[in-house]
Records
---
Amino acid sequence: MNLTLKIWRQKDAKAKGGFETYKVENISPDTSFLEMLDILNNNLIHEGKDPVVFDHDCREGICGMCSLHINGHAHGPDEDITTCQLHMRKFKDGDTITIEPWRSNAFPVIKDLAVDRGAFDKILQAGGFISINTGGVQDANAIPIPKKDADESMDAAACNGCGACVATCKNGSAMLFVAARVSSLAKLPQGRVEGARRAKSMVAKMDELGFGNCTNTGACEAECPKGISIAHIARLNREFLSAKLKD
Amino acid sequence: MTKIDSRIPAGPLAEKWSKHKADIKVVSPANKRKLDIIVIGTGLGGASAAASLGELGYNVKIFCISDSPRRAHSIAAQGGINAAKNYQNDNDSVYRLFYDTIKGGDYRAREANVYRLAEVANDIIDQCVGQGVPFAREYGGLLDNRSFGGAQVSRTFYARGQTGQQLLLGAYASLNRQIAKGTVKSYNRHEMLDLVMIDGKARGIVARNLITGEIERFGAHAVVIASGGYGNVFFLSTNAMNSNGSAAWQCYKKGAFFANPCFTQIHPTCIPVHGTQQSKLTLMSESLRNDGRIWVPKKKEDVEAIRAKRKKPSEIAEEDRDYYLERRYPAFGNLVPRDVASRAAKERCDAGFGVNDTGLAVFLDFKTAIDRLGEDVIRQRYGNLFQMYEKITDVNPYHEPMQIYPAVHYTMGGIWVDYNLMTTIPGLYAIGEANFSDHGANRLGASALMQGLADGYFVLPYTIGDYLSHEIQSPKVDTNAPEFAEAEKGVKEKIAKLFSIKGKQSVDDIHKKLGHIMWENVGMARSQESLEKAITEIKALREEFWRDVKVAGTNGEFNQELEKALRLADFLELGELMARDALNRRESCGGHFRVEFQTPEGEALRDDEHYAYVSIWEYEGPDKEPVMHKEELKFEVVHLAQRNYKD
């Protein structure tokens, strides 16, 4: 396959960015999207140019490190996958592909296609945990949990913190990300004790960090590589409201 | 010759850890506040250690190369974590888990460490459930288990095919709680480039801020290396792209001994290589071998027909299939340990029965299980793995069998540590995959997660206190000390040198060459000839690297090419040590298979008389051959025997 790539280049957080156009040739349809960018970068290096910076690590869809808006879609045209799982067979020979970083005020660009998602860490530090120390816990089977609840908790826990939900949302809201964590813990008896405090402090931190409001468009769910349902946002809202009522 | 002291406590095996805990010193809360600890890496080992140490009241600084601690490669572990809970009433016990691990490691691990690992494994499951890890459950609300290779009991706890992710998110949550409390400070996108020693003790690190390129100094009373394994020396592996051996390698070059570097795990079930543009290999979890059956056609003409796509694998009649693991190892069948399964796949492919166009693939087939249990049950158990497979290969594994082939996955070797997990450098610790201690020559499935968390939650927080109890009078480490300045200067010179070469080959060009040398000569089958060849070729390639590499960009920016170049420079040294170690070990054991040493049936032929030791390498300087020391392995409880998975 021969392709034309329009890629966002930006020297650093302060610089003004812009699109550059590149060509890549003889790409196998079995190549992954990021391998195609590897090939581009290797060509650029041999031409004495600066390679394109993009975040990636596990390349099997689990670590949440890769990002990229591809032709206007977070993680590209395929469904339920991260960019690293996207393969070139989803494109046609001769295509022009536009590649941008996540677009959100809360995720400033570091360079080219890499952004700073540190705000997600900060939200989780505000309460995305169960407050137990190492040791001194009871036997694992002393806490029976209905299979359905454990499964729903796991559905929410599949969130890999990639930020596609924020990048896709027209308001730049982090509600799906926050909801995934709150909901995962809310389904478990271990997490109940501090449920109210958790919901309030994580939402407050999210607002403080400049994420937008949720207007229930559902765009986040559509682009989430892990298929996290917006039903979790409803659960977060319930948690948050009942916590506020108790105040 | 330096004496190797593993500091294994005296007394009966089952009582060693309890007795040791009672014997070692502790640090008072008031003194803990005055002590600084650096942790390198935020995977299961690093995150659990840093969180636990923070809870205890130490001042912890933790470093990761990614944008968040949650990205560490532990997250990619799929299948599960072992523990001897015996929830299934299948006669499991701490002893059985210990025994299986020692045997699985082909009798090249330290008994006392492995017993302790098995002993604390149960606490890990309790801890993780307490943190809210959503393990799979039965309808009665209790925890579910499955089986993994090398075991005849069901002791593996799991969270779908994302166990590593869930355990890491648990440890990361505990870490976040400590970060919020201020006991732990997290330095993301920072890479350790050197260890700083003062008066013979580990006293800090020099790290590069990966965004700005600044070289920064950090002091501490102890340094913990939890930076994972070095499988990426092979270029293609199941490791994440950024996983590297550099932190461990800097410690080696500062005097920490490196143990069993040649013990590499080649995982049997990975998606086969598709072409020369490939950047990494994807694992298909060992848990799939619970329900998947591995086979190749019995007849060459069927092999040809499948390769030419004239026949679908599902069209091959049952009697024309060779379920070679079930045939060769009736007692364990498809659940033999990884090294055995990998070699058996290689044997069939070398004999011409490989089922894809490269001839390097076998089938992993779920038809029997789907017929027995239905597609829905299989989807529940392995849905995300099947999806992952289909996205990569464009083949639906519910209808046609998966194609798999072995790939580099894990390194059992690592920094040598004593029973306290301390290296040969006082105050320097190594935990998780970064150390060598628990898996011998082959790691069993679902044991890496167990070891990372055992070290981080339940071993290091105790043992490090014994060392730090002698440090309570030591003031804060002064990062203006000349040792820091010297380390920083060395790092800066190395970086400047890399940029000055301005050669013709990219970092990846050279890394691929190294990977090829390693896979061909230090891979699944090794011989004296191949290993000698590898040593010569790696030396030449290292020279080529320092003469002809082209590193784009500058230091003062986010520069991924520079990161890769620094890591490759270390791999080019580490690869040679791996070959040297493999050359020395004139026996076959676990993942180390020397073609000269095999039984008539093609099984690994150990030589306990001459090689029942840990080979420990000491760095002697840039152009000098390293010196090998031995830690003799004494088996007081387990009887040494050839591994038997047949009956």
Note: Chain B touches chain A through 81 residues (CB under 8 Å).
---
Amino acid sequence: MTITNPSRIHPAAKMHAEELAEGKISRREFLTRATALGVTTAAAYNMIGATPAEAGGHAKMGGTIRYQMEVRGLKEPRVYDWPQIANLMRGNFEYLVEYNNDGSVRGMLLESWDVSDDAKTVVLNVRTGVMWDDGTELTAEDVARNIAGWCEKDVEGNSMAGRMNTLIDPDTNVAIEGAIEVVDSHTVRLNLPKPDITIMVGMADYPAAIIPADFDADDIINSQGTGPFKLMELEVGVKARLERKPDHTWWGTEIYGGPFLDAIEYIDYGTDPSAFLAAFDAEEIDSLYESVGEFIDVMDSLELERSEVVTGATMVIRTNQATEVDGKAIYADKRVRQAFALSVNNDVVLELGYGNRGVPAENHHVAPVHPEYAELPKPEYNPEKALALMEEAGMADFEHELISIDDDWRKNSTDAAAAMMRDAGLNIKRTILPGSTFWNDWAKYPFSSTSWNHRPLGVQVLALAYRSGEAWNESAFSNAEFDSLLGEGLSIADADARREVMAKIQMVMQEEGVIVQPYWRSLYNHSRPGWVGTGIHISYEHHHYKWAMAA
Amino acid sequence: MGLFILRRVGVMLLTALCLTFIVFFLTNLYPNLEKLAKTQGNMRMTDEQVDSWLSERGYLDPLPVKYGRWLGVVPGWTFEDPDDGKVRGRCIEPGMDPAEAPRYCGILQGDWGFSTVFKDEVGTVTANRLALTGKLMFWVMVLMVPSALLIGVLAGMREGSKLDRSLSTFSIASTATPEYVSGVIFITLLASSSGVKWFKGTATSAADNATFENFFLPVLTIALYGVGYIARMTRASMTEVMTAQYIRTARLKGVSFRNIVLKHALRNALIAPFTVIMLQFPWLLNGVVIVETLFNYKGFGWTLVQAAGNNDIELLLACSVAAVFVVLVTQLISDIGYVFLNPRIRIA
Amino acid sequence: MEPLTWTGSLSVLNPIFLGLWALLGVSVLAQIVTSFFGTEVDVVGDQLVVKKTPNALAGMAVKYSFIGAVLITLAYLVGGILIPGLEAKGIIGIMATRFLPVWIALAVTFALSITFKRKLGLYGKLFDSVVGMIGFAIVMFWVFTAIFGAMDFIVTHDPLSQISGLKNKVPGTAVPDGNDVYPYYLLGGDNLARDVFSRMVKGSWEVIKIAPFATLFAFMVGITLGLPAAYYGGKLDTILTFLANLILAFPVILLFYLLVTPEIVATGIPVYMAAVLFIFPIIFMVILINSRFYVQPAKRNIYLAFVLVIGLWLYAGIAWNADPFGIIEFPPNLLVVFVSVVFVNSPTVFRIVRGIALDIKTRDYVAAGQTRGEGPWYIMLWEILPNARGPLIVDFCLRIGYTTILLGTLGFFGLGLSPESPDWGSTINDGRKLLSIFPHPALAPALSLMSLVLGLNLLADGLREESLRD
């Protein structure tokens, strides 16, 4: 295996290019798969004879954008629990790789990377000439230190640990000795004990920001970084202001272009979409974090520019199989869970809860946009059978409390599902919690709905949310068969080969009634005319260097 | 008079003490502390982690001790981290040598604590937000008081006339329309694409730069709910004055109606509304919370909602102190003003 | 099917109706403007005659256009009831027909009340005041609507059922074929495709069943504490007044946020508060009976036993959710809202009662009672209280309106009642998010709430006027 030859193209990527030519996969799937295997975006596009779509051409320098976004308190990156927090610091703390709307992963602080054929060795080639604010260069040591930090599973709320799971020694809960190897000043090699295909896309996720050696969790705002913007002003819940660092030469200017803007102002309008609409009406903001529900149509009529991205973002209504209600874990009973799934018609929830802005889902949390999605028959909708199952479980008279957050689409969708469960004869009570309290116990509610963001690979979400003992396993699903199948799936680099395992996994999910998953959402946002690059990102990332005023 | 004020101030302090203690008690109930720990630390902490998080920060000490610390009569908590031996404490600012830190740091020392939601000194947050709400209230008063008095006087000078009937109906209707109804209707009609776009439906930018466009609707919404009440008080007081003997005498003497109203009736008719206006302040506080939330104006009311929703104990306490201060000071002013305006009352 | 029009076959009247309203608006303005120029008086023969000034002309225009508008409104309603066929009736006609039980009940109430008004005391006198009658009519309209609505008379659909395809549809939209329900959504569909009209009607029951009772409880608490505070004075008065002022110094919203959250409910504090607050009505009734029938022990014991059995049974059921017979149930959600509203209202009532009682205490008949050797509680409850009833009844009406607004405020902040509840506050809060696009789901409950509170205010105004004439 060669290490330092970035032009080497992974054999699987070549195979995918053929698949694309044969029409077996979409362009988008090809890009996700090929770039995850270490092929640069440009090379991947090259393989199929296309050119990447970039906005840079018509941008002009200068300007300040006002952007609606919740302004949350800062935290250490690896414990980030909101993309919004990451966006505040994203101008300063950069990422190794960047995931884009077209499904491609491209190098940022990494010049390139290389996944071995057996997916057990990953070589990271750190970009040269990337400077910290104090003038020192970013080195392989920095990268290795950050990865080691992500592997510290004992740090409360460290969600990167789930993404780096293969690197972690289960006995010590830190990185396995020798797994993160600094080869030279700009090369890091990850030696995995078992194949893992998700590591690279995991590094594109929002908690994977690269922080300096002198990072101080008590003074994040003044921390140095490699990026072109600095957070100058932060008033939690009110506003934040990022300004371009005055005497900083950004490495990316030559490679990707930008940054164009002088400053970015984030303004917090709470969570009520009507306030966003009013803010647009009042010309107080230029761009929106996300447009939801009916407001999409209204904003379309306002001469605003809409951007749309099809995703694997979703909402699941799940039972927690371990949480006890009245001293009994009632949802450990499979029949009760299946009854819920049978009583809900996913198409209707999509219509009433999300205005048909998406595609119906199939209760297994693998999206058609994921490369390894296996097509299964549509889940059954059968209210009579649902009631019969519930009666069989002896729960016909039990009042199930269905909890959701108080917002537009999640509340409406959950209400719609609850109405259908009632129509089927199940006894449902709805509880709606405000956002400030909902997330306190989100993983523990006996029966509730949760939103999940898009992730590039289908196995990723499953590994994060349904594997036994995971921090985010809100359904407390613990199934040996599922775990072993998933472990198998996670070691198959080729998506087609993985699809066979996925079919089984998806079947287990449906059969066990783990979740009622009504639909996959498309995401939208709106901007006022005259801005480029401010469209919505598939996982809500703000790539500030791409934003600009139209020339 | 001096003694009277002194006694009122004493009662005020006692009230503030009791009130903050109640708020302190309610916010320090264990479920609330658990919520705080989880929002501050992490949403997915286990029960043991919650316990250790809380006890390391002194939240699990007895209630009177915690309250004493907040007041500044009991030394602040300190905690030595068993891992790295670093000492943290209530009175130890980041970067300060623990040995040099003061022992007491409560409101008596001028330290209002640290806001867990806004990650800033409570004193700064509260002062900024109060200033913004002060601005809002000022304009509310400017709009509300003169229009309410005008309506009341016009309605009260000829009791039973059609003018009286229509103005009284308006006053009743305005007291029957809560802010969350009128505000919403105003936004739809006057500040959205479906109505006319004369005004702006958010007041966020009014915090830095208040203009007629972005500030009028919130001011109008609060003022409208208060106008009816003051107008009815003024009307009642005006009708009473207009039937008084001295007015009848003046009329019989042939003084013109205009002069009777302006020179004789008005001053006496305005005593009662004055008290009402002052007592209206605490009421307006309610409206302020609704309107600031609705219009996204980040003043005191909005802060109160954020603090309460996130169980930000010290910020909530500061808000309570500010609120109780407003209530009691306006009561005091209304009492004193009443005495000055009404020569028949003397307080020994 | 075609959507319904508002007025059906009576739409010929629409231009006249609009014209009359326009005329009314213009003439009211004209009248206000002209009223600033005084009236001129002419001497015709030996009589003073008011000249036909612009003001008088405007006054006449107001009068006749108003009468005309009211007549046409009546025509819409009555015509709507009489015309057969849903399309011909139009939305207003159908609604008028649905409300038929309410109209009949209102007519009976008014006919009976006006016939016997001289025998009905203060209530009867209400029918001497036009304002009072209007207020009473509005309030009773909603009371009857609530009662009949709760009995499923008026509603056209189930308030929680959703019909696919009717999300946010405008008033009068026909239900798609294949649904075996009422064929139209009279006031349109809400954000979840539920019938706005049925939710509005059902919501009135939610409001009517909480607001008056919460207010009544607050009054019992306020009276039980306010009377002795005023009568005895001294330390008791000082302490109670201090406590009342303490609660009043709280911003109401802060209090709600501190009391009506899931965390506080988990601690059980609302139950303890309920336990304290709900004992007052029982104390009140017991003292009331005891002081009255003190001299007739046999009668007293029967009454007391009766009150105590019923009272304690209700108390156990409501406050502790421990009804031995399992009949009374009080959902914890409702309890915490109820307790908070009572808690917020009681101190104000206390202050009013104390103020009035302080005044009445100095009257001669109280001194007479004292010399007769009547017990203090007898004087308080049977001498002072009846004489304070005028202002208290007026305040009671106003306070129900205020409580209705408070319940809405709770809904506005997402606190309080069950989220799917059709009560007006929550519905307004749900609808307000989409108000700029689909105003009808929020407008119906908002106007209902406004009209109920307005009715209560007018009623209070009428009662005040009439009680002042005593």
Note: The mean pLDDT of chain B is 82.
